[in-house]
Design goal:
Blueprint lengths: L16 E5 L9 E6 L2 E5 L1 H10 L6 H12 L5 H11 L19 E6 L1 H8 L8 H26 L5 H28 L7 E6 L2 E6 L9 H29 L2 H17 L7 H10 L4 H16 L10 H47 L6 H48 L3 H4 L1
Antiparallel strand pairs: 1-2, 2-3, 4-5, 5-6
Length: 423
């Protein structure tokens, strides 16, 4: 059944599903997971009832009210329901709105393992997530890693030869593929379909990615396992590398231990949208953490200006406060780190690049391998300054957005009436 052209009742796309969403600690209002294709939305009880009512295609406003009452058990006037639809229904659900293309945060991207091939691979790896085996593997990793890490950290600051750099780059990229296989295999273990695995160019940095969007369907503890699946598989990889490094003392193995460890710790950082961010989000039930930090900042500004009363902190607000403080501390640390590196590079970069350029210019072009090694040293000398420059641009842009957000919060707070006028 279709509505008349003048009907104000929204018409939804077919294929929308709604399932209960597991509540987090301290959460009282029920939420529901609304799915359409690969798009997922968390909605309230009223929004769920509205979607269920609209899926029956009510031809009149009276029938819309009746369908909503049947789904929710409460009556709301049609005008209120239409306003609720306008404010809370994602536009992608509407029949006349085209589905947005799937976007990845990369300049370029290439799928290396399609969904079917990735599924065939992960089907042979799910046994690694059996709880008892996982506990043994994690304990083995911890013991070996505690012993090998000090030597690895010491060698990380030693000189890296060109051959070592190439070998480490290849092995490090392989560890990235294993990391993504950990995420997809965790999905497969919980009987949740997953997509493919690929590689993309994020600014100038190569990065792996895996499509585990459907993990939204899982309970939050299982989603947490999916979040940790990547570092878990890298931990298994490190068991072999740690054992070989301890047995042989091989410098290449020890440097690889340090590289993978650094990557694992970095991806567990909850400030950026890496594994640690999603892990904290899934365990706490706080989604869109960055937006919630901005909203909390705006509320704090309004409270400080006497436009909002102080509310008693709950579990979720305490987690959000701790996350905000952590983000601020990390942001300050990152800024100080960049400042220190920029000062150091201002005195060391030109001599280092000049020396490597002169070395390259002095080599006969017929000596292909020597030219390649010298060019590699020149690129290596330029790589770190370029990374610091891009990181500085990223930092300054985030700082600009933070300042703009605080100014907007102050402006919005000024428009609110003082608390004395609200009583």
């Amino acid at each position: 059944m279709t509505h008349a052209a003048t009907s104000p009742i929204p018409v939804l796309k077919p294929g929308i599903t709604i399932t209960p969403y597991e509540q987090a600690a301290g959460e009282t209002a029920p939420r529901f997971l609304l799915a359409l294709g690969a798009s997922y939305f968390l909605v309230s009880l009223n929004t769920r009832a509205l979607v269920m009512a609209l899926l029956h295609n009510p031809p009149t406003l009276v029938q819309l009210e009746e369908e909503f009452k049947a789904a929710s058990g409460t009556h709301l006037p049609a005008a209120h329901l239409l306003k609720l639809a306008q404010q809370h229904l994602p536009s992608v659900l509407l029949r006349d709105t085209p589905m947005p293309p799937r976007e990845l945060p990369f300049i370029l991207s290439l799928t290396l393992l399609g969904p079917q091939l990735a599924a065939r691979v992960t089907a042979h790896l799910t046994w690694l997530f059996k709880p008892y085996l996982a506990a043994i593997l994690i304990a083995t990793f911890i013991l070996l890693h505690i012993v090998s890490l000090p030597a690895a950290m010491h060698l990380a600051h030693a000189d890296w030869t060109a051959k070592e750099s190439i070998a480490l780059a290849v092995l490090f990229l392989l560890s990235g593929l294993i990391h993504e296989l950990g995420h997809t295999t965790a999905c497969r273990y919980f009987a949740c379909p997953h997509g493919g695995i690929g590689v993309g160019l994020y600014y100038i940095f190569p990065a792996w990615y895996a499509d585990v969007t459907n993990a939204w369907q899982l309970p939050r503890r299982q989603r947490a396992v999916v979040d940790l699946g990547g570092v878990y598989f890298q931990s298994i990889m490190l068991i072999a590398i740690d054992a070989y490094a301890l047995a042989s003392g091989n410098p290449l193995a020890l440097k690889l231990v340090w590289l993978i460890t650094f990557a694992m710790l970095f991806t567990l950082n909850p400030v950026f949208k890496f594994d640690g961010y999603w892990l904290l989000s899934d365990l706490s039930g706080l989604h869109n953490l960055h937006k919630k930090v901005r909203d909390a900042t705006a509320a704090l500004v309004a409270t400080a200006m006497g436009r909002r009363s102080v509310s008693a902190p709950g579990v979720r607000s305490s987690i959000l406060t701790a996350y905000s403080v952590l983000s601020l501390c990390y942001f300050v640390y990152f800024g100080l780190f960049l400042a220190r590196e920029l000062v150091a590079l201002s005195t060391t970069m030109v001599p280092a690049v000049s020396a490597r350029w002169q070395l390259l210019a002095a080599i006969d072009l017929t000596q292909g391998w020597e030219v390649t090694l010298a060019a590699g040293r020149l690129v290596a000398a330029l790589a770190w300054p370029l990374m610091i420059a891009l990181a500085t641009v990223f930092f300054l842009n985030r700082l600009r957005r933070a300042v703009v957000g605080i100014i907007a919060s102050i402006r919005d707070a000024r428009m609110l009436p003082p608390l004395s006028k609200l009583v």
